[in-house]
Amino acid sequence: MCRVVVTGMGVISPVGNTIDDFWSSISSGVCGVDRIRRFDASRLAVSLDAEVKSFEPKEYYATMQEIRKSDLYMQYAMGAAKQAVEQSGILTNSLNRERFGVYVGSGIGGINTTLREAAKLTEKGPEMISPFFVPMMISNMAAGAISIRFGAKGPTLPVVTACATSTHTIGEAYRAIKHGYADAIIAGGSEASINELAMAGFINCQALNLSDDPNAGSLPFDKRRAGFVMGEGAGMLVLEEYRHAKERGAKILAEVVGYGNSSDAYHITAPDPEGDGAVRAIRMAIGEAGINDSDEVYVNAHGTGTHLNDAMETKALKTVFGERAYKLHVSSTKSMTGHMMGATGAVEAIASVLALTEGTVPPTINYREKDEECDLDYTPNEAVKADLTCAISTSLGFGGHNACIAFRRI
């Protein structure tokens, strides 16, 4: 079995479009939630989201023609991938492109392109539909475009598991490298689904917080929590076989040491209230990682700010860790980024790696009111310094999909 390490990371997020800006924001408790500005939301019951700010696709593409052929979710993905590839330095002359892959997913794909082209069909007729509609809309095209851009000819696939998407892409990429199918893989996820249709759907399934106060919108583990805030963006990591990275002199950021993948087999939107699937995924990851009582552990929780998720996730952590759960450093960075859907797992994996490298636990901001069902240490409001040795990141998606990835400081 091969060891797998992280050698590059990139992010486009509501709190920063570079790794440095992202970390500066989440370690100091900057809130990326604000009023909806992307479109006229006057018909909706919700008024908050977490939008990416100041994103310039021209920084990541050579021509305007390439940009016009890419949905926004693809542009976010390309931006984060370019950052990760450049940080890793993976594109050396010795790189075997047939063992260099791309595992990048999206929960929804190019929904903004779909809406635009559907409106054109209604207003102007079928002859006006863009010939690029299908490749801009489908959920695999971010992976395809990244593969083309960086000449990655190895294992390449998307994952679509709703909110667990990009934790699964990282985990499956980890397994592909660990078992010898690739030397390096760009892994992550991207989402750009902030629009009236998607938000109306989430409102009507009672998932979104209807508060109009940006500091009361995303409240993971707080007793006042009442739903999540929609976010967007992308996160990418370059995973690499350990010896491959060492031989080329790469800077190693952390080691990927465990992965769990399970299903609730319970309900299409609600989590199993006992957390059985989450428990199994976490146990798989920490068992493979060899995490023990001597480790100082950070948990980047799924922590959506919905009543059912946060209570269940707390219960799952206590089931897995027992009394030791009260010694875990837990936080939900969704309190700052909102819920970035298919991108959220990768962005939270990046936060986990940064927590290890910086020795800092990012906070759960706007935490005010303790809930008796949620009684762990959620790192309220301010970051905490800690000599962390391991980090785990959990992601739990609609359909009952559960994923957990574990990292170790190196």
What is the total tally of β strands?
A: 14
Question: What is the CATH superfamily classification of the largest domain?
Answer: Thiolase/Chalcone synthase
Count up the helices.
13
The value of Rg in angstroms is: 20 Å
Helix content: 25-40%
Largest sheet: 10 strands, mixed
Average pLDDT number: 97
Q: Biggest sheet: strands side by side, in what order?
A: 5-4-6-7-1-8-14-13-9-10
Question: What is the CATH T-level topology of the largest domain?
Answer: Peroxisomal Thiolase, Chain A, domain 1
Q: Note the gap between the termini.
A: 18 Å
Spans with pLDDT under 50 lasting ≥5 residues?
Answer: none
Pairing-aware structural class of the strands and helices?
Answer: alpha/beta
Q: What general outline do the C-alpha atoms trace?
A: globular
Strand content: 15-25%
Number of domains: 2
Q: Architecture of the largest domain in CATH?
A: 3-Layer(aba) Sandwich
Secondary-structure element series: EHEEHHEHHHEHEHEHEHEHEHHEEEE
